[in-house]
């Protein structure tokens, strides 16, 4: 049975970083898992190469857009090859096969009446390159302060509005279509709020896929179709792998995959993907990784120092899949040493060394009683819960179950004390020692099968040392039951699988290599390497000093620590975010703030902010705002939210 899964295709206007690797590794783990579950799993990935930004970056380097895109696309592919991603197909949106598929789908949607020509008029900020929805003729851009222009564009529109009910019905009939559940609910409420038709072509951009006359496809209409062009035979129209079983995406692009994409497919009368899973975003230094903050981590330096297996383990053990999570060098090395070197590695080398020492490297036969022992029972329970967790992509929970079993095995060895048994005479003791050795080897066998999708190389090494000939990659997870190791089998050559890492020098080396890699990538993309911890560029002017007030005047202002529970854009107002903020009161506050051009709703949820809590309520676009969010800005500059470096409780007062 086939299982077709995809990663997002990454933009070539930025070089790959560890966030892209997180996504691609997740897909690789799932592919390996599905193979072990008996599926013919196919994984595609690739690069998204059109759009104005790419055109500009190329021009800045004196390159043709395709030349520039090729350089960056190769960077992605190089990383995936270096870290052993098992992708089957790498799709570039600049390939003729993709162009052909996009035009085919555009036509299909048009033939069925879902694409029409229309015009759009709005206030456009030429500097920032977007329409300012809330501005009227003569208004300035709220972001850069420059005057907006009234622009009319003739575009092709997709009748997204026609799909609201069908989409909602699909979500309802297929409760697993969007996962995790919390994200599904967000999408459902977004669609319930109404859908507007979508402009899917541009005449203002040249670097794109021509769909009709001088119209090129809007980047998302272009990009999403990669999932079909990667596997469609354009000559025959055959696509046996479609529909995809899983689109794996970061949460910030879920809407495109769970709303636009299924609507395009419905319009074209094609089957929908089975599942869209949105994982969380990886943060570094408690913040979103971004070029301007200079807090980006690249994959190469990390893997060069600690190895890809350490990174794979860390990602899927540390972070609950589906939620945001933090990357830190300390935690990466810490987990490796504690759980791989000491935990799994130690159990392996102890067990194998004892088999070598006490039984000449030949696996002894267990007694019948061992299969009914508490150790075997622990293994059975662990197998069941790990498999269940993995099946629901709950990797960290699955691994918790495996490590529970490993510590039970450690305890078992200590209790049995094989080193004492080996010295004691008698058949009964001899059998007890055989059971102790067989039991811990069997736990090891089960553990490496379960862990293989996550740490494929090191589990294969342990397998060889255990003397099992069949690679784990070819094994199936169905026959994991207790007692499969064959007595009489000779173990292989014993060697360290997870050598301990000396944390401080390793971390220093990763950081040093990181700087080298940043400079290399920047040079390749024709970008400047920012000086470390540079001050943000000042945009706007410093406000003149205010008149003096009494301290009591200040204390009248009730400033509270709040935490954003929910955030969404206010329809028809580009600048406004509608939020629910917990400030320690029984009910969260509704707050509407003019920060939407700088902060996305996703970035706000969970964030701690400062709220002016005793302002008179004010209505903005029909929503009553009960407080104000505190942000700093230069006059005419972008707002930057006030926050805290240390932990602070919600509701705490600022004074
Ligand atoms: O959005 N943590 O491309 P993109 C985890 N071309 N994952 C991260 C991440 C982070 N900090 N940063 C990026 C695009 N990702 C479009 C996609 S698909 C038809 C078109 C991963 O280069 C994550 O999967 O900005 C996210 O969704 C994706 O990279 C965005 O990559």
- Residue share in helix: 40-55%
Q: What ligand species are in this complex?
A: ligand ME8
N- to C-terminal distance: 64 Å
Strand content: 15-25%
- Helix count, per DSSP? 20
- Look at the helices and sheets and give the structural class: alpha+beta
Radius of gyration: 29 Å
The parts where pLDDT drops under 50 for at least 5 residues are none
Q: How confident overall, as mean pLDDT?
A: 93
Lateral strand order in the biggest sheet: 3-2-1-12-13-7
Number of strands: 26
Q: What general form does the structure show?
A: globular
**Main sheet overview:** 6 strands, parallel
Q: What this model shows, in words?
A:
- There is one protein chain.
- With 655 residues, the protein is α+β, with helices and mostly antiparallel strands.
- The chain contains 20 helices and 26 strands.
- The strands form 7 sheets. A 6-stranded parallel beta sheet has the order 3-2-1-12-13-7, with helices on both faces. Strands 17, 18, 19, 20, 23 and 26 form a 6-stranded antiparallel beta sheet that branches.
- Strand 24 and strand 25 form a beta hairpin.
- Helix 13 (374-391) runs antiparallel to helix 14 (395-416) and helix 13 (374-391) packs parallel to helix 16.
- The longest helix has 31 residues, at 329-359.
- The chain is globular, with a radius of gyration of 29 Å.
- 41% of the residues are buried.
- The mean pLDDT is 93.
- The protein binds ligand ME8.
- Residues 8-11, 19-20, 22-23, 48, 223-224, 226, 249-250, 252-253, 281-282, 289 line the site of ligand ME8.
